[in-house]
Amino acid sequence: MNSLSVPHLIGIRDLTTSDINTIFTTADSFKDVINRPIKKVPSLRDITIANIFFENSTRTRISFELAAKRLSADVLNFTASSSSVKKGETLIDTVNNILAMKVDMVVMRHASPGAAAFLAKNISARVINAGDGTHEHPTQALLDAYSIREKFGDVADKKVAIVGDILHSRVALSNIYCLQKLGAEVMVCAPKTLIPKNLSDLNVHYTDNLKEALSWCDVANMLRIQLERQEIPYFPSLREYTMQFGLTQAILDELPKQITIMHPGPINRGVEISSEVADGQNSIILNQVENGVAIRMAVIYLLASQIER
């Protein structure tokens, strides 16, 4: 059986191209599983997984929980808003208390960049990063790239435009790393105020013209504006942002070619993307959601295979 070169999934930057392809191949098998009448395999009946979310989440938390249960693992769900964290308990104490209950793997989302890496250095369980601040969201990038592979047969040589709040988006950074490892070309499109200062280090194209980005790309991944992470105003108003960077069917109809539309969610309909586009024939947004379960099953399974049992 193929295995990963890393003991934890902290970020895409830590993975080799071989690791990514191994995850994809494993996900292919699990996609067959989740589309059959009995959507479960007994692979991880002796594994316990804790989903620890210090930030709000719907899709990612449910997707990880479903992935673990499809593999027959036992699952604990922990949310900071209803825990002793509110009483001042530290991250390490919280996790160690959970590990004392004989947990084998921790899936964690945290507001602080580097939290998952910190945890992996301080506990014995396997760690999967479900998003750490504005740093990385590796499983989202994997499912996005997997969805492109499913649509086109390969990711190599595809042109992908990432449009939206690049500065605050862990999805954008992980996607850039993942797509480039797989041979795709990446362009980011956003107001200059929402572009990170180190953009030149990322080897991507940049434009602040949405139509230019859409004319260039094969795939457009539309990101939401992360108002919860913005401590200062980065543009005059959401209305003005939508006028310049919002994707509508009228804009798509003006393009000289068909392009594929993606969105990691949650969608702010009428802001970065119209309902007509989100639900239209060019969209593979629901495919991304389905593929998220298969990809997370693959990651959990491959990391669990390294645990001595």
Question: What is the CATH architecture descriptor of the largest domain?
Answer: 3-Layer(aba) Sandwich
The CATH homologous superfamily of the largest domain corresponds to Aspartate/ornithine carbamoyltransferase
Task: Let me know the largest β-sheet.
Answer: 5 strands, parallel
* Computed Rg: 19 Å
User: What gap, in angstroms, lies between the N and C termini?
Assistant: 16 Å
Number of strands: 9
Q: List the uncertain runs.
A: none
Lateral strand order in the biggest sheet: 7-6-5-8-9
The helix-and-strand class reads alpha/beta
Helix amount: 25-40%
Q: How would you characterize this protein structure?
A:
With 309 residues, the protein is an alpha/beta fold. It has two domains: 12-136 and 289-304, Aspartate/ornithine carbamoyltransferase (Rossmann fold), CATH 3.40.50.1370; 138-284, Rossmann fold. Helices cover 39% and strands 15% of the residues. The strands form two sheets. The chain has a five-stranded parallel β-sheet with strand order 7-6-5-8-9, with helices on both faces. It has a four-stranded parallel β-sheet with strand order 2-1-3-4, sandwiched between helices. Helix 2 crosses helix 11 (285-304).
